[in-house]
Each structure stands twice: as structure tokens, then as C-alpha cells.
Write a structure and sequence with these properties.
heterodimer, A: 164 residues, alpha+beta, PH-domain like, 2 domains, 4-stranded antiparallel β-sheet, 3-stranded antiparallel β-sheet, 4 helices, B: 545 residues, 7-stranded antiparallel β-sheet, 6-stranded antiparallel β-sheet, 16 helices, 24% strand
């Protein structure tokens, strides 16, 4: 092979607001750990240092994560839909590309979690007959997601195939 | 019990044998509606016998327990009525179940009604039925009965949770009725209606010599471990936990510590070997793999409990040749089928087409079922893949060595055990490095006609032959370490078997071309091919000159 074949990144970015959503997620996750530690530290005087120092360290880690991770993730997470397939890129340390052909798509779902709803975001999930083959696009604008789901449903209806 | 025992099966069999077709009509019908059939009434006797056997298992120790305290007469006076009561109650319960279970086969559907208080009505479209499996436990075999499981093979997840399972179980019907249902429900286009034996081709047949591969499985150690655990449990019941320790001390005094250790290891392996031999014998005796004219593969096997599994060839998406390390060292392999719609999970024995058998047999079965040519050379993976595996092995070695050092130096482990631990750890370290090399040699991928071939694994080396048009998506993944080493893992997703099959740690450029070639058109739009590297302009220049 004289030429080097590479995967090109999918064409579309997620909605900008996804970074705020990720920040909120990291914030919630950090708070779930840090807040109980803080309360314990304030209540149990003799072991105060044992609770407050880890709490402070975790809080700093969480803050750094909130500042640095979302922009990094945003650059990696991409998606694309062609007439033939759905193509996504995700993951950070373990990058994952997924391709699902239109002719094999069984269902197209849009989902909005409570936190996502606060940021006006949706998740589009495309499933095939393989339980290992689901493709998720997390963090699209609500209307954009609805349009995409509609378009996907239309294309899969027009594409012949028995989905297995 | 004795009056229902041996006389009946002979009678039933004699009555049924001459006219198999009449079975359906002579089976008592339940209710007034036409076409509804009942299960076989002997199920009450089968249940009675099973409960009686189980009750005996509990009754004998109880009798001894009570009898040793008082007298055996008193003990029997308590135990016998209890056993009779338990058997009677379960037989009556089974009678009620039998009374309220019926089924029928209409031209389009297979239907079942069951239950007295909460009635269940289940109806499967006949065109959707994919599996009709028969099995018979030893008691059912004595009565000439079989359990029939009829399934559509659809995933529960496809219809969402809470959907009723797409299976109908008839437990039990007469053996001939089971065969009739199997032929009726699986064969879309019935062959010869005149009752002649259809043209069945036997693809593989049981060879008792294959038993020699059984003790090489990992089950040998697992079963021996279970046996030891069971022994301690039983001793615990009898309040004799210290017995094994005392016995061990006596043996050590007699023959020395090292010899005792070796002796115990040998006994351990022997117990496991006998157990795996017995289990394999029971599960695979009289094994036969057949291809039936309706496009069905049929696996029949079993010594005490007989099983028959049917696999519709239309749904077969490939085969997997599995060589666990021990079995592989003897030049043997197992063949699993990769298919959609098998009721059970892919790890269970239901998907096994051929038990551990010589590689030539495995290759011929794979060839007969899927038309592949096993044994060919596969494309190798980059050396970086070996470096990764060696690095893992060395990391594990370091952890192991640290643990041993800590145990021998920092904790009061006695000299003898320190030596044993060190020797074992050293052996493990060497084994890990060897396994890493072996795992690298196992890696390979290629195309074989309509199939994608991927091989990996050392302790469980598996070569999957996956139909290229059975691939319904790609998943490519690359960790930070893989990126630095120029490796990529390509996973084909499919509706069959394990749902995903991977080409692990392949060259990051080559495997993309491979994926694009395996399923034309799917990956291509997302690939970019860098401008040909330096070699080609030079060639052009050479040509000009």
C-alpha cells in the first residue's frame, strides 16, 4: 500500500451549548462527592483535615475539568449523516468512530434528559439490529435533533433493506 | 411408583411406533374447540418420579438423623407420609397444569393456552418461527416424551422490555409428536408427503476418541475447585471442618511437604479430569450434525438427557473456530455457529456445532456449514501489537513480583510457602510473556470469499468467519497508546452471535482499506487517502528517463 488511508472527521459539530451541558455534568458529579465531604468535615471536628483536604483537592480537580475538558471534547465529538450512513466520532483518550448504514437502521429516537432540557439540547440515538451497533449523537439543538430524526426516518424508509 | 414404572414406556412406544401420524389424533383433546391438543398425560408420572427422587435425597439423611436419635420406626413413620404427601401434591399440581394447557397449529399460527387462574394465551406466526428444539431428561426418555421449545428467535430488546417472550414451550409431548411439530413448523416446503425419510446429510458424527480433549478444557480446574469447595461444605455440615487440616498434617509427616503438595495437585487435576469427562460424555454422547433438505442444520446429542437443536441456515451469518489453549495444544478445536435468532446467549452450548475435535474435522465442518477454507494464512498485524502485549505482560509481572516480595519479606510467610510462592510466581511471569507472544501470533485478519476472517486470543483463540453482508455497521476505536503505535481496532457489528467481532490492533491505515473492501461503499465516503508517498513520483521520473 503506497498511500496511507485515514478516517476523515465527520463534517458537523455539536451545538455550542453542549459545552455548558458538559460543564454542568462535571459540576454535578464533583458536587456529589465534595458536598458530603464538606458536611462531614464541618460536623466531625477531630477528623476535619481528613475530610476537608480531599474535598479541596477534588474541588480543584473538578474546576480544572470544568475549564479544560469541554473545549477538548467539543473538538473531538463530531457527526455526519449522508444518504448512505450515519457517521460519528467520539471518545477522548479512547477515540471511537461509528458507522451505521441507512439500510440497516431499525429505529431513530430523540431523547431529552432533564439537564439537557435546561440547555435546550437533545440526543439522537440510531439503533440497528445489532445491540452493539447503536450510534448516539449527544448534544444537538432541540429543533435540529427533531429535524434530523425526521430526515433519518425518511431516508431509512426510502432505503431498501431488511435491517439484518 | 413401581406400578407406573417400566411397563408404561414399552406400551406407549409400541402403540406409537407403527403409526407415528396417528399420534396427533389420539392425543386427548382438551375443550370442545377443534384442533386443540393437550400435552402428554404422562407428564404427571414424570413429575411424580422426579419429585420422588428429589424427596428421597432429602428423606434418607432425615431418616438417619431422626432414627439415630430415636428409633428407625419412628423416623419412617414421619418421613414416609411426608414423602408421599409431597409427591402427591406435586403430581396433582402437575395434573392441573396439564389439564389447563393446550396448543394447536393452524395453517398460519402456533397457539398455546395455559393456566387456570391466570390464563396465558400465546400465539406465534408460523412464518416467524425460527427454532424448534427438543430435549428430554432421563425420566422423560423412559416415558418416550420430549420437551419442545418453539421460538421466533427475536430479541426481547427489539420489542422493548415487558414484551412477552417469543417462545412457546410444550413440556412434554410424545417423542413422535415432537418430531412431527419440528418437521411441520420448520419446513416451509414439506418434502415427500409419502413418509419416506428425507434426504438428510450427516456433516459430523461423534467419535468417542474426542473425549480425550475434554480434560484439557479449563473446566477441569474449575470443577475440581467446585469439588473441593463442596467437600469442605459437607464436612462443615457434619461439624468436621478440622478433618482436612489434620489429614494433611498426617500426610506431611509421612511423606514430606513437597511430596504432599505434588500429590494434592495431582489428585486435584485427576478429580477435575474425571468430572469434565463425565460432563462431556453426558452432553455430547451420540452427537450428530445433520443438514436437512429444508435448509436446516440439526445438532443431536446427549447420553442421559437428549437434546436436539435446529438452526435455520438462512439465518447463519458465519462460524467461529474456537481453540482454548489446552484444546489447541492437542491440535483440536471447537466450532460455534454465528447466527441470528438463537434463543440462548452466544456463550452457551446451544451455539456449538462441534465439540472439541481434531482440527481437520473442525475445518471440514466449518467448510461444510459456511463454505470457508480454514487454515489459510491470514494477514499479520504490525510488530507494535506484539510490543503492546509484551508491555502488558511485563506490567503484570512487576505487580506479581512486588506482591511476592511483599508476602515473603514484609509478612510472616513461612519458608516453605515462600519458596512455593516464588516458584509459582516465576512460572507465572514466564507464562505471561509466552502468552503475550502467542497472543500476537494469533492476531490476523483477511477476506475469504464472502466472509471476513478475524483471529485473536491466546487462552481462548477464536477465528471468526463472518459473512460480509451480515455486517451492519463499523466501530473503529483507537486508544492513546494505540494512536502512538499506529494501531487501530476495527469492530464489525452484526445481528448475529456475539453482536460484535473485532480485528484487534491492526495497522491503522491497512485496516481501513480492509474494512472498505469487506463491505463496499460503507466506509469509503469517510476515508481520505493521502497523496501517494515519495515512492511514486520517483518511479514516474524513472519512467520518463
Amino acid at each position: 500500500m503506497s498511500s496511507a488511508t485515514r478516517l476523515r472527521p465527520p463534517r458537523n459539530w455539536l451545538d455550542q451549548r453542549v459545552m455548558a451541558w458538559w460543564r454542568a455534568q462535571i459540576g454535578v458529579l464533583t458536587a456529589v462527592v465534595v458536598v458530603p465531604l464538606l458536611i462531614l468535615g464541618l460536623l466531625i471536628a477531630p477528623a476535619r483535615a481528613w475530610f476537608l483536604i480531599p474535598a479541596a483537592v477534588l474541588a480543584v480537580v473538578g474546576l480544572v475539568g470544568i475549564l479544560l475538558l469541554p473545549p477538548w471534547w467539543f473538538r473531538i465529538h463530531r457527526w455526519e449523516v449522508t444518504d448512505q450512513a450515519v457517521y460519528t466520532r467520539g471518545g477522548v483518550l479512547w477515540q471511537v468512530w461509528r458507522v451505521a448504514p441507512m439500510s440497516r437502521i431499525q429505529t431513530v429516537d430523540t431523547m431529552r434528559g432533564p439537564l439537557q432540557r435546561a440547555f435546550g439540547l437533545s440526543t439522537v440515538t440510531v439503533t440497528t439490529a445489532s445491540s452493539a451497533g447503536a450510534v448516539k449523537i449527544e448534544g444537538l439543538d432541540h429543533e435540529q435533533a427533531a429535524d434530523l430524526a425526521e430526515e433519518l426516518t425518511r431516508i431509512t424508509h426510502d432505503t431498501p433493506g431488511d435491517a439484518t | 411408583m413401581s406400578d407406573t414404572g417400566p411397563a408404561d414406556p414399552a406400551f406407549d412406544h409400541a402403540a406409537a411406533a407403527p403409526a407415528p401420524d396417528s399420534v396427533a389424533t389420539t392425543t386427548p383433546t382438551a375443550g370442545d374447540e377443534p384442533g386443540w391438543l393437550a400435552l402428554h398425560r404422562d407428564t404427571v408420572k414424570v413429575t411424580g418420579v422426579w419429585v420422588f427422587i428429589l424427596a428421597l435425597g432429602g428423606a434418607i439423611p432425615t431418616t438417619i438423623g431422626i432414627g439415630s436419635g430415636t428409633s428407625y420406626g419412628t423416623a419412617l413413620a414421619w418421613v414416609v407420609p411426608a414423602v408421599v404427601l409431597v409427591v402427591l401434591v406435586s403430581a396433582i399440581a402437575d395434573y392441573v397444569r396439564w389439564r389447563h394447557s393446550r396448543y394447536r397449529v393452524t395453517p398460519t399460527r402456533m397457539e398455546q393456552h395455559k393456566g387456570m387462574v391466570f390464563t396465558t394465551k400465546r400465539s406465534l406466526g408460523r412464518e416467524r418461527i425460527r427454532t424448534v428444539d427438543l430435549s428430554a431428561d432421563p425420566v422423560q426418555r423412559v416415558f418416550g416424551l420430549v420437551k419442545v421449545s418453539i421460538g421466533t428467535g427475536e430479541q426481547v430488546e427489539a420489542g422493548g422490555p415487558g414484551q412477552s417472550p417469543q417462545t412457546i414451550v410444550l413440556d412434554p409431548v410424545h417423542r413422535d409428536e415432537g418430531e412431527r411439530l419440528r418437521a411441520l413448523l420448520l419446513d416451509r416446503a414439506p418434502v415427500a408427503a409419502d413418509g419416506t425419510e428425507p434426504d438428510v446429510r450427516v456433516l459430523a458424527r461423534w467419535d468417542p476418541g474426542w473425549l480425550r480433549f475434554a480434560p484439557l478444557s479449563f473446566w477441569t480446574l474449575a470443577l475440581a475447585g467446585i469439588a473441593v469447595g463442596g467437600l469442605f461444605q459437607v464436612l462443615n455440615w457434619f461439624g468436621r471442618e478440622s478433618l482436612p487440616i489434620d489429614t494433611t498434617r498426617d500426610i506431611v509427616e509421612d511423606i514430606g511437604a513437597t511430596q504432599t503438595l505434588v500429590l494434592f495437585a495431582v489428585v486435584f487435576v485427576l478429580v477435575g479430569a474425571v468430572a469434565t469427562l463425565a460432563l462431556t460424555l453426558e452432553a455430547w454422547w451420540a452427537y450428530r450434525l445433520e443438514r436437512e433438505p429444508g435448509g436446516t442444520l440439526r445438532v443431536r446429542r446427549g447420553l442421559l438427557t437428549t437434546r436436539s437443536v435446529s438452526i435455520e441456515e438462512q439465518r447463519v451469518r458465519g462460524v467461529e473456530i474456537v481453540e482454548p489453549l489446552g484444546v489447541r495444544s492437542a491440535g483440536a478445536a471447537r466450532v460455534d455457529v454465528v447466527t441470528t435468532g438463537l434463543r440462548t446467549d452466544p456463550k452457551s452450548e446451544a451455539s456449538t456445532l462441534l465439540p472439541a475435535a481434531p482440527m481437520t474435522v473442525a475445518a471440514s465442518v466449518a467448510a461444510a456449514v459456511a463454505g470457508v477454507r480454514p487454515g489459510g494464512r491470514l494477514r499479520r498485524h504490525p510488530v507494535a501489537a506484539r510490543t503492546r502485549r509484551l508491555r502488558w505482560a511485563l506490567a503484570a509481572d512487576v505487580v506479581l513480583a512486588a506482591a511476592v516480595v511483599w508476602l515473603t519479606v514484609a509478612s510472616p510467610v513461612r519458608d516453605f510457602w515462600a519458596v512455593v510462592l516464588t516458584v509459582l510466581a516465576a512460572a507465572c511471569c514466564v507464562a505471561l510473556v509466552l502468552l503475550a507472544g502467542d497472543a500476537y501470533r494469533s492476531l490476523g485478519h483477511d477476506l475469504d470469499g464472502d466472509y471476513l476472517v478475524a483471529r485473536k486470543g491466546s487462552l481462548r483463540r477464536a477465528t471468526v468467519y463472518l459473512q460480509r453482508n451480515g455486517i451492519i455497521g463499523w466501530r473503529l476505536s483507537q486508544s492513546v497508546f494505540q494512536r502512538r503505535a499506529g494501531l487501530l481496532t476495527l469492530t464489525a457489528t452484526t445481528a448475529a452471535g456475539a453482536r460484535r467481532y473485532s480485528v484487534v490492533d491492526a495497522d491503522e491505515h491497512e485496516v481501513l482499506d480492509f474494512g472498505a473492501e469487506a463491505v463496499p461503499g460503507l466506509l469509503d465516503p469517510f476515508l481520505v487517502r493521502d497523496a501517494p508517498v515519495a515512492a511514486e513520483p520517483e518511479q514516474a521520473a524513472f519512467r520518463e528517463r
